[in-house]
Amino acid sequence: MSFWIINLIVSLVSFALAAVSGIFLVPFLHKLKFGQPIKTKDGPQWHAKKQGTPTMGGFMFIISSVLTAVAGYWVYRLIGGVDTTDKAELDAFYRMMSVVAFSMLFGGIGFVDDFIKVARKNNDGLSPKQKMAFQLVIALGFLFALYKFGDDSTRIDLGFVKTPSLGIFYYIIMIPVIIYLTNAVNLTDGVDGLCGSVTFVAMLIFTVCCSILRENELSLFTMALAGGCLGFLVWNLNPAKCFMGDTGSMFLGAAVTGVGLVLHNHLLMLLVSLVYILEALSVVIQVSWFKYTKKKYGEGRRIFKMTPIHHHFEMSGFSEYKIVITFSLTGMISGILGTLTLLA
Questions:
Q1: What is the largest CA-CA distance in the chain?
Q2: pLDDT level of residue 118 (50, 70, 90 thresholds)
Q3: For the residues 112-118, what does the mean pLDDT come to?
Q4: What is the mean pLDDT of the segment spanning 50-68?
Q5: What is the mean pLDDT of residues 45-51?
Q6: Cβ(195)–Cβ(185) under 8 Å?
Q7: How many alpha carbons lie under 13 Å from residue 322 in its C-beta half-sphere?
Q8: Closest by Cα among 281, 276, 275, 278 to 333
Q9: CA separation (Å) from 110 to 55, 104, 131, 183, 212?
Q10: Nearest to 272 by CA among 214, 205, 343
Q11: pLDDT range class, residue 2, cuts 50, 70, 90
Q12: CA–CA separation, 4 and 27 (whole Å)
């Protein structure tokens, strides 16, 4: 059995598990009354009808992707001729599991945040300082794991430009990169099907890149997560029957960031993550401009109708389906450009 057949089976099984699990999870979340609180004061008024839609649906792709990626590895190991005495082979597996653990821990932060919100029946979960503290600790642990399992390079790879070894400063730079990008993925979750669709595309692109860079073990996780996202979209496309919640979006954020760092091609990571980066950047620009104009003119002014920027398009008349398609195609184009940098 070829490796690509194993990858395809992993993706299909993950899709099936995620899609079928919704049959049981969505009614269960309804029963627990784990509905998403919706704020419409400053946003689209039509989102009010989404009030009470079950959240924490991210468990669909979390469970399916983790189970199938691990199971796929053991199949690959048993019939794929993996040399279990080869340190490089084992380190590749440990790097994959580091990404899985990293993603699950960030998903855990999201779960606590979601649980507090549904318990209080409002959007006030963990405080920003609490989130930042947890994320910082987990980010440090992940970077240490990568170093421990063979990725000891401290050069930043921007395609045609590579920095010299930066030593400890590499890790100091990567920590805010991790925090920014994981939270950027979280911000992308605001329109039915958007975050799941963009991440599905990102994971397909990452799978091709894993093949080029011979990170076979890691590609098992990217394909498993691609299948899981697709299965979740059965329940999350407009009109959504379930939201992924911070449980799901924080897991996806860590997965995207973790895969990008393991591949150790930072230009690739930036291009594959371009949609997320722009989503978060729109918030930074909006808040900064509002504060500046308030200080200078006595009243805050806005550049966008609402941020993250997908809400600006929504309030400009774009349907949720049109936003999902546009953003996913943008992610695909930028991701393909990122892949081409590996072949140059």
A1: 69
A2: confident
A3: 89
A4: 91
A5: 63
A6: yes
A7: 9
A8: 275
A9: 11, 10, 9, 11, 33
A10: 205
A11: confident
A12: 36
Query: What stretch of H or E contains 12?
Result: helix 3-32
DSSP structural state of residue 240: P
Q: What share of the chain is helix, strand, coil (3-state, %, to 5)?
A: 75, 0, 25
Per residue in 159-170, pLDDT (tens digit) is: 878 889 999 999
State the Cα–Cα distance between residues 174 and 168, nearest whole angstrom: 10
Residue 167 tokens read as 């030593």
Phi, psi dihedral angles at 246 (to 5 degrees):
-65, -25
**Mean pLDDT estimate for the chain:** 91
Residues 6+ apart with CB under 8 A from 56: 29, 34, 111, 114, 243, 244, 245, 247, 248
Q: How many other C-beta atoms are found inside a 10 Å radius of the C-beta of residue 100?
A: 24
Closest by CA to 95, choosing from 45, 49, 146, is 146
Q: Tokens 């760092």 — which residue?
A: 261
- Tell me the C-alpha distance between 308 and 31, whole Å: 31
Span 309-343, pLDDT tens digits: 999 999 999 999 999 999 999 999 999 999 999 88
pLDDT of residue 149 exceeding 60, the answer is yes
Peptide bond before 54: cis, by omega within 30 degrees of 0?
no
Q: What is the mean pLDDT of residues 115-119?
A: 85
| Contact (CB, 8 A) for 110 and 245 | yes
Q: What residue ranges do the domains of the chain occupy?
A: 3-269
Tokens 């930042």 correspond to what residue?
132
Q: Classify residue 164 by burial, with Cβ atoms within 10 Å: 0-12, 13-18, 19+.
A: exposed
Q: Where are the beta strands (DSSP E) in the chain?
A: 157-158, 161-162
Confidence of residue 42 (pLDDT cuts 50, 70, 90): low
